[in-house]
Design goal:
20 helices; single chain; elongated; 10-stranded antiparallel β-sheet; alpha+beta; transmembrane; Jelly Rolls
Amino acid sequence: MRNPLAYLYCIFTLLYLLSFGLFSSVFIVYREIWYGFIFTGSVIFLIVLWKSSKNNSLSLPVRVLYLVCLYFGGVVLFSGIFHAISLYFELPFARVNVAQINADLWKQENIKFTMLYLFFPVLLLLQYQVMRRIRFISIIRYLSVCVIPSIGVIVYQGFVDNLFLNRWLPWTKRIGGLASDPNAYALTAFLLFPVLLAGSIIEKKPALRILMIIVAVLLIANMIFAANRTAVLGVMLLVLLIPLIISISMHTYRRSTRLGLLILTIVLILGAYFALDIVADNVGALGPVGKRLATTWNKYKHEGMISLFTGEEVRGNLWSVGCTLLWKSPLGGWGPGGFYREYPNEMYLRSGKVYLALDSVLNHYLMIADDFGLPGLGFNIALLFLPIILAIAALRKMREQQMRIITATILISNSLFVLMIILIPPAYFPDVLWVWTTQSALLLVLYEQNVTHDVNRIPVEKKLKLVHLSFIILLALMLIGAYETSFGEFGYSAKQETEWWPFKFDNNCYPVEFHWQGWGQWCKRHAILIIPIEDRQSGAMTVKFSAGNPDLLEKPLEVFYGGKNGPSARMIVNDYTLRSLTVPLNREYSYETRRPGKESADRSLVLSLDVSRTWLPQKFGYTGDTRELGIYVLYPK
């Protein structure tokens, strides 16, 4: 009878490889709920595996890796908790950045990013526990079969309808099958490619061996639709490194033969470099990815390496902001997802303009450092590189030729991947993490199976105590830093008191939106609104507003208004016409903010508003809007 664990693992593989694309496009409203469901299921799966294990005795290096997972998870969790508590004490409509993201919304984002960062340590331990119980070839079979629907979808998208299940990036013409997004498809394909090739080596059934090879080829071929340059170049480099893989694998070869294979690898890489210059113009025929590669190569040839990070390439700007944020908070970072939150603030300090963070910092290591500081980065680097180091140790002990080829192939691809993520962070793609941790866990199991340990000779417990002590120190440093960016000098409340903060008096108003009367903001009861004052305005300013209560004609609305010290005057609104309110731009109704490096101050109107009652659109059956609405304030044109 087949192991029930194998069926359960197959179900999880299906969910990870096939569901996240649907919840990034068709069911995007439920995306966070689905992520939470899958994450919770994975944690339960891991606990059940650990509790049911008959042998949890681990070698010292693997025990250290377990501790790294535990402490990195602690870094993420404690950082998320610090920021969650700090946000809890903020008013729901208090802004956390100049892009007007409010504290209520960022509470949800904080939970989401905390969960996404916890996926990797949880999945690494889960995959390791599974691989100790299920044959590696069975896992490869599940992967090769489960990814086929995603391949079918991306082929349909590429040749028939690129909008099919692809609602998140329609204007780019980049598609990703059933992966989280096009980048996730490309990275998953890169990671699956060597795993499936390794499976074809040890698979004894010809039909399954052919299937693995076909799936591997299709995964790579469909990368042209995903248009991810990093993954395509990674595959090219992996193919060029085949002589190196052979050299590492064939320990029976003469030293001169192995040296010749190493030289051949260098020659192939240099040859590919010079060949790119010849074929660059023809590469553009390969669709979006070809055009992106050709553009990148031509920019590099004509303008140098620096051009790849400037101009239309935003990576240089993102890295610059990321480095600045790390410099400001090197110990604890800015919390889960902190780069997204703080990017608009940093750009505002630099330019005085509001820029949204439309992308991550596009560097995995810098992203981890920005969100969790250098201690968090240290734990993360240990998580990524320990399996590689242990696989090298295992390879030195292996004698079985077939397993040496498989180990070398996975080792080289995993090493390439930790270099590739300098250009793109995969931490927000659970489907990529599923395949990545498959590779990493395999390297751990190979180490356990091939390296013997003399427990009596090695003072294991003493070494583990030293590891614990050093990890506790790093965790304590992170907590100090996390306190500074949640409660302390750089915290949410402290930001409200800085000289440059433009929302000092802003409260209880929803983000700017387009109403049929123009751009403006809906406000609740007891609201304070700020409106920028143009340089040419002086003396007084006219503000227009309207109410939307369905029963307004029968029950007039009382609107109270004033300045910094609260409402002091009253108006009656008994119809749906625009009302005009003229207020003097004196000390009571205005305030100034001054950004560092700017001589002149920015002036804003402060308008306190209160209404006698509010209404909920959903309650009256107009829309699904559940907000509590008072009056709509129209922005001056």
